[in-house]
Amino acid sequence: MSIHFQLKYLIVAVILAVLVACNDTDPTPIKVYVTATFPAQVGGEIPTSPTPTSTIESAAPTETAPYEPSPTTEIVLSPSPDTAGQGVPIAHTPTFTSTASPTVTPTSSVTATASVEVMTNTPTLTPTATFTETSTPEPSLTPTPSPTNTLAPPSFPNVPPQDQLPVLQSGGMGIQLHPLVTDEQWTQLLVQVNELGFEWVKIQLSWKQLEPAPGQYSDLFYTYVRRVQWASFQVGSHKILLSVVGAPDWARPQGFDPALEGPPADPATIANFLTAFIRETKPEDNRIQAIEIWNEPNLIREWSGQEISGATYMRLFDAAYAAIKAVAPNITVVTAGLAPVGDGLQGAVGDRTYLRQMYAAGLARYTDVKIGVHPYGWANPPDSRCCTSERGWADNRVFYFLETISDYADIIRQNNHVTKMWLTEMGWGTFKGVGPGGTDLPAPAVAGFFDLITPQQQAEYGLQAFALIQQPPLSDIVELGFLWNLNFATIGDVVNAPQEQMGYSLLDATGYPRLIYRYFQVARKIPSS
User: Fold this and answer.
1) What is the rounded CA–CA span in Å between residue 485 and residue 469?
2) Is the distance from CB of 341 to CB of 127 less than 8 angstroms?
3) Which of 176, 196, 334, 394 pairs with 271 at a CA distance of 20 to 30 A?
4) Distance (Å, rounded) from C-alpha 347 to C-alpha 304?
5) Residue 337 has pLDDT above 50, yes or no
6) What is the pLDDT of residues 42-90, one digit of tens each?
7) Taking the CA atoms of the chain, what radius of gyration do you get in angstroms?
8) Range 82-97 burial, b when 16+ CB lie within 10 A, else e
9) Which residues, at least 6 apart from 18, have a Cβ–Cβ distance to it below 8 Å?
């Protein structure tokens, strides 16, 4: 009995010794990329309703040889022509043969022909329609939960197979996300970005919502910091392009119009804001790869309260550039993408004229910046050339994807600026298939050209545009493209309060993938090394 009793206590002593030893051992640290404690979301509790999980089967990217143009395609990049205003066409690569029907019926491999005319003199442009589709809708301060799904997701059985779609380089592809969603929704959006094969994510910051008083930062400021962290490290390791817009009222010049966005009276205020945001995101961890300074400042709706000119913009740009490089020298700085409009439009300066003004104010001295471009095509295919009177929004160079790129390339070359363009917004919009459950809705009055685009054309044109800029000669002058946009149709009320930005969304109002989403998901991507 005594032996058993002693053995019993011996066992207990061994167990206690092991527990004490475990308690004294330092645990292995696990690095978690989140900022300390984030305040509650401005405007109330953050809803927990997640964006619906994609119900379509994911197509894993397949590493294959890059897309080869058709043997009959001539690819010639000629020097600037001697005759002013007369360019030599540049034949180019892949396109789709589109039909007017929204039904997708693949019949043969996708082919395309595009030409770019390089101009040495850009003619005076007089657009026939006001450019209105790319302004970012003002978000409420409380994230909007996704609507409850009572409709079945749309089915797209006739999407072409991979071998009939171009092979794309994912490192040259980005997409803009609306960040004012719940944490769960944001994670789901990033998963969908991975599924689509985009390596870059663009996030636009509404400065006035993030710094309501000088040096005082809102809860939303820290929420957006967390959005950047999650996108750059925790869900897919995306590269981040930030865009900063909308000065707060306290920073605006006297007599400003509160109904319109505008720049600060003192450029030092945006420099201070950028410094604070970058520091909060831990610049030593390289969480932000690029920052675009403002959005479409050649329009009064984005630049109210000061003269609309490239020279005025460059004063803001100079201060912002210096601030960014002081705190994070590795961040690429991008000039504001300009709205493609012609001269003579009330409340706007033609984008070609505006870019020339920027160069006259010293843009070319920045050897490491990229030139932001918004080459929208309205209802014109990405490989089409100006001009025609057979349809609306087609009688001017500003309405054409290739013509805008060509004109910008010519202006850059004329100013001896060795740089490349970043297409910080691009895409084609339609309200067909954007409603709840993929239903068709009437296009907003300001976006009548949406009625000229079918869902199939929207999908084909988007893929074709990326294929064009990723092959010579366009790849010699364009470095990146950002599709506009992933989820804007899920923000707000697309039925009762439609905004034209919703027509470009890859998700419908219910959060389900549209046809263009499926095209991008199926197309092969070669990831960057």
Assistant:
1) 18
2) yes
3) 176
4) 9
5) yes
6) 233 333 333 333 333 333 333 333 333 333 333 333 333 222 222 222 2
7) 26
8) eeeeebeebbbbbbbe
9) none
This prediction has a pTM of: 0.77
Integer Cα distance of 250 and 209 in angstroms: 12
What share of the chain has pLDDT > 70, as a percent?
A: 71
Residue 418's CB is within 10 A of a number of other CB atoms, namely: 8
Strand pairing category for 525-526 and 371-373: unpaired
Distance between CA 302 and CA 94 in Å, rounded?
A: 35
d(CA 437, CA 513): 9
Residue in 403, 399, 426, 411 with CA at minimum distance from that of residue 480: 426
Distance, in Å, from the CA atom of 195 to the CA atom of 202, rounded to the nearest integer, reads 16
pLDDT value, residue 228: 94
> How far is Cα of residue 109 from the mean position of the Cα atoms in its chain?
29
Q: What is the helix, strand, coil percentage profile of the chain, to 5?
A: 35, 10, 55
Residue 341 has pLDDT above 90, yes or no: yes
Q: Which letter does DSSP use for residue 284 in this model?
A: G
CA 71 to each of CA 89, 91, 108: distance values in angstroms, whole numbers, following the listed order: 18, 12, 16
Report the interhelical angle of 183-196 vs 515-522 (nearest 10°).
Answer: 50
At residue 188, the 3 state secondary structure works out as helix
pLDDT tens digits, one per residue of 217-249: 999 999 999 999 989 876 668 999 999 999 999
Distance CA 353, CA 3 (A): 99
DSSP states along 22-59: HHHSPPPP------S-PPPPTTSPPP-PPPPPP-SPP-
CA-to-CA distance for 380 and 453, rounded, in angstroms? 9
Instruction: Say how many CA atoms lie within 13 Å of 80 toward its Cβ.
Output: 17
